[in-house]
């Protein structure tokens, strides 16, 4: 997945998140929102990894999606 693909994926996830936040809020929607938040964090983390690797003169394709528990544990 290249940077453009990541941006497209992030946009799609954000659109879905906005629709869910402005719609009915049942348990299924709450679960999906949580999944979207994790997926967004993973996408943003992957994009940052790719940029960092590129800045360091490394191949951005070496970046990998980190586990949900890892990206969710980052301090903001």
TrEMBL record:
Q: Which InterPro entries match?
A: Uncharacterised_Rv0898c (IPR020311)
Pfam assignment, any one: DUF2630
Q: Annotated region Disordered: where? A: 51-76
Name it.
DUF2630 domain-containing protein
């Amino acid at each position: 997945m290249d940077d453009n693909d990541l941006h497209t994926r992030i946009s799609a996830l954000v659109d879905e998140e906005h629709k869910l936040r402005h719609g009915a809020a049942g348990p299924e929607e709450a679960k999906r929102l949580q999944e979207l938040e994790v997926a967004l964090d993973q996408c943003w983390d992957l994009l940052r990894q790719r940029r960092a690797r590129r800045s360091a003169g490394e191949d951005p394709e070496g970046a990998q999606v980190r586990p949900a528990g890892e990206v969710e544990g980052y301090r903001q």
